[in-house]
Fold this protein.
Amino acid sequence: MTELAAAGALAPATADADAGTAKVLSVRQLAWRKFRKNRLAVFGLVVLALMYLSAAFAGFLAPYGDRETHAQFARVGPHGLNLVDTEGQFHLTPFVYGLERTMDRKTFKQVLTVDTEKRYELRWLVKGAPYTLLGFIKSDVHLFGVEGDGKLFLLGTDSKGRDLFSRILYGAQVSLTVGLVGVALSLFIGISVGLITGYYGGWFDEIVQRIIEMTLAFPQIPLWLALAALVPPTWNSIQIYFAISLVLSILSWGALARQVRAMVLSLKTSDFVRAAKYANASTGRIMFKHLLPGTMSHVLVVATLTIPAMILGETALSFLGLGIKPPMTSWGLLLNEAQSVQVILELPWLLFPAVFVVLTIISFNFVGDGLRDAADPFSR
């Protein structure tokens, strides 16, 4: 009983109804339990999981290819599915009405009207534009589509007749992953520099801190623009993608390095670090086995809050025309096409990518708040 009470002082115990004993939860189990109690954090995690799964399987989920054009259906507003026809009759299978191009006698412009005499039913697992799934699986089967000559534009089309919903899914592959790549580089640089400067200190620490202060003193957007302008215009889309990831990571590692350094300064005087030194443990073992794990909870929270900044950075650069270039697409590039006031007035549905950007940023912030609370599971 004494040992059980001592263990219970370190971690709360839960009653096991079947065995009639108390179960001691580990710190990870306590953190997960506290994270689950934050409903907004769980909601954000579910939204992000759906976002990244949709990006991974964009070719399969998108009804059309990202470069597939429908010239005669350019500038079409959202043309969604219907379950009830004009006569009020309910249909078990969703359908879309046909589209017909006519001449407006007042403005003498070509306009598209809905032809209620033509109905095209929704079909599952239909063949369409070829794509490569997960980088190596080639296929031309799409999750859904419509039969015959029908067209399904859930979020409308752009000025070139490309399906916006499909392009948003393909754009998520770039916008969501550029944050992961940039954060991975930023974490590697920030953690390494923070560990070394915090552990050794001295003149090297002073020089690094001055460099970090210089990078943090520059305004982000102008510095992003200056670095992005250095990318040669002859580079292909893949090279530009990694260049943008590098640009974003260069400007975000400084704050993390200072935070890790501060934590290392407080941990290196701890008893367990002193005991490791007296046991003749190597410097690498002390840094990576004793000091680094003590900073990981904070690093994890910082990572979840840095990814949205990376996504916004890529979106801003692409929106200003210095980021991702065609034929690749991203949410920022899609918003770049909607920056004209005339386009916004005539084609307001082109602003739909902004909804996905906002939803992703909010979800990351919710998850970051939940992780910040879960990092200290013993707090109330």
